[in-house]
Write a structure and sequence with these properties.
- The complex is a heterodimer of chains A (166) and B (377).
- The two termini of chain A are 26 Å apart.
- The longest helix of chain A has 23 residues.
- In chain A, a hairpin with a 4-residue loop joins strand 2 and strand 3.
- Chain A is elongated.
- Chain A is of the alpha+beta class and 166 residues long.
- With 377 residues, chain B is α+β, with helices and mostly antiparallel strands.
- Helices cover 38% and strands 15% of the residues of chain B.
- In chain B, strands 3-4-5-6 form a 4-stranded antiparallel beta sheet.
- In chain B, a hairpin with an 8-residue loop joins strand 4 and strand 5.
- Classes of the chains: A alpha+beta (166), B alpha+beta (377).
- Chains A and B meet through helix 1, helix 2, strand 1, strand 2 and strand 3 of A and strand 1, strand 2, strand 3, helix 6 and helix 7 of B.
- Strand 2 of chain A pairs parallel with strand 1 of chain B.
């Protein structure tokens, strides 16, 4: 049997439900999500090479904690608590008073600190946008490469012709 | 009753030193690194995160190393560590519809949009030992890539396909989306338990226990013949909305396995017959657990469906009170710890009872004159 997707199913409505209308917020969400997926080493190197002269202070020292991950029964129904994940957060202030924040998966305090610093720099003058663009492109490429390997495992059904028909 | 017993300190210290030595094993063999465990024993890592109820691959790898590969001991270590951390936030409910899938299959529809995607699976392997892995040898060839990536939007079998035709029940969504969600890590479990609490319990429940109960539902100890509507394994991004920001941010990806079952239909005089559903969701790649969880979730919905309770998997209290392997281990294994005074009491009691019975027997024998003559006579 061939299945037909519903054009207006509930999950489609859920998609993009939280896309914010404010473009500034949308842009910040984008770079924060990119930074959260970037290794400490990468952030550290870029900071020391191109932003090493910044003076800044911790508004909140990096702190390790947890986020309780929530799911929904059946993917779209009642909410439930699935389990926790480790998360590190940090807040920094640049010399002009710009405050940067970060919340990143895992327990790497240094990664969280640099993520907050880059957030602050991006908020102040966007001076790390080339770096963010490069990271975003790399992350998208890695995702695409993986999706292509996964695609190679897609079943290609074919039906054998059987019987005596000519 | 427990009474402090002193004098074991030296023995305990030495026992722990012996344990450390045995954990390390033969020092001529390279020590295993936690990042090797994280990368190469990733399904053990997955299980420890799921049942330890804490997603952190590095910590799970460390716990496995420290526990000498005893996964329940490792889960215990994760649970203990978890209690030391503050909770910053609850995530927004994850959207498994938007999962970046590494595997997605359906046992109910062959030709579904998006396709059957096998991903990294043991299915269809021959289960023959592969001695090349032992011979320290070959780096595996790189997995081939398809020309195009998989479809970005994969419809969900239950919601987007079956429900389109109204053939399956809806997942009820509470009217109040801000209503509290039960959390067994913060409040004691009370019965009858809501589905939120049951799903939380099952997701961190022991894989073997949930598997056995799931199996029992298939063998007739619950009346809920199930099909696997869809299994997905892949990554989803986690979003939280920190107060200081006031908008949602994405903090990274986690791996999840999700299973939705399509179960026996149900109808009434006023309602058309309809399939029902079971749901499984676990951290990491573990579809054995996800399928089992969905079977048991469906079985535990017996009351809601007006079904007769005929097996243990349908009894939420039984399932939930015995699913946690840290709790079970604690109670089962505690009986090996000193119970000297308890047992002394029991010993006294049995001796006294025996003496009383013997005395009574001797007395009745004398009264009836049936006693045997003493050898000395």
């Amino acid at each position: 049997m061939t299945a037909h997707p519903a054009p207006n199913a509930r999950t489609d409505q859920n998609r993009n439900a939280d896309t914010p209308t404010d473009p500034h917020i949308a842009a910040r969400q984008k770079w924060m999500s990119v930074l959260a997926r970037t290794s400490r080493a990468r952030l550290e190197t870029e900071w020391s090479e191109n932003h090493g002269n910044e003076s800044w202070t911790h508004l909140r020292e990096p702190q390790i904690g947890m986020v309780m991950v929530r799911g929904r029964a059946g993917g779209a129904g009642q909410r439930f608590n699935l389990g926790e994940m480790t998360v590190t957060r940090c807040a920094v202030t640049l010399s002009d008073g710009t405050v940067g924040h970060s919340y990143v998966k895992g327990r790497d305090r240094i990664q969280a600190q640099y993520a907050a610093l880059f957030d602050a720099v991006m908020l102040r003058d966007g001076s790390a946008s080339d770096f963010i663009d490069t990271l975003a492109a790399e992350q998208a490429a890695a995702k695409r490469d993986h999706a292509r390997k996964v695609a190679a495992t897609k079943v290609d059904f074919f039906t054998l012709v059987r019987g005596e028909d000519e | 009753m427990y009474v402090a017993v002193k004098g074991g300190e030296r023995a305990i210290n030495n026992a722990h030193k012996l344990l450390a030595e045995q954990r390390r094993g033969d020092t001529d063999i390279a020590e295993i690194e936690t990042d090797q465990i994280e990368q190469q024993l990733s399904l053990s890592v997955t299980r420890v995160m799921a049942e330890g109820s804490l997603y952190d691959r590095d910590l799970a790898a460390l716990a496995i190393k420290q526990a000498r590969g005893d996964l329940i001991e490792a889960i215990f270590l994760m649970r203990a560590y978890r209690t030391t951390l503050p909770r910053f936030a609850f995530s927004k409910p994850i959207k498994t519809a938007e999962m970046d899938v590494s595997r997605r299959i359906s046992a109910t529809f062959k030709d579904l949009p998006g396709g059957q995607i096998l991903g990294p699976t043991f299915d269809y392997t021959h289960r023959l030992l592969d001695f090349t892995l032992m011979a320290n040898g070959e780096v595996p060839t790189e997995a081939p890539s398809g020309e195009n990536p998989i479809d970005e939007n994969m419809p969900r079998v239950l919601d987007d396909i079956l429900n389109y035709e109204g053939l399956i029940q809806d997942e009820p969504v509470p009217v109040d989306e801000n209503a509290p969600v039960a959390d067994l890590t913060r409040e004691p479990v009370k019965f009858p338990a809501g589905r939120d609490l049951r799903l939380q319990n099952l997701s961190r429940g022991d894989e073997g226990f949930v598997l056995a109960l799931g199996y029992s539902t298939q063998r007739g100890y619950a009346n809920s013949h199930a099909f696997v509507g869809e299994i997905r394994y892949g990554t989803v991004s986690i979003e939280i909305e920190p107060e200081e920001l006031g908008f949602a941010i994405d903090i990274g990806d986690i791996e999840l396995t999700e299973c939705e079952t399509v179960n026996k239909f149900k109808g009434s005089k006023t309602k058309l017959p309809q399939f029902t559903r079971g749901y499984g969701l676990v951290f990491g790649q573990n579809e054995r657990k996800a399928i089992s969880m969905a079977l048991v979730d469906r079985a535990m919905r017996a009351n809601e469906m007006g079904e007769q309770i005929m097996g243990p998997a349908q009894d939420s209290e039984f399932v939930m009170e015995h699913s946690d392997n840290v709790q079970s281990t604690g109670f089962v294994e505690h009986i090996k710890l000193p119970h000297y005074v308890d047992f002394q009491g029991e010993l006294e009691l049995v001796r006294r009872m025996r003496a009383e019975v013997e005395e009574r027997l001797a007395k009745s024998e004398t009264e009836n004159g049936t006693s045997q003559p003493e050898a000395a006579e």
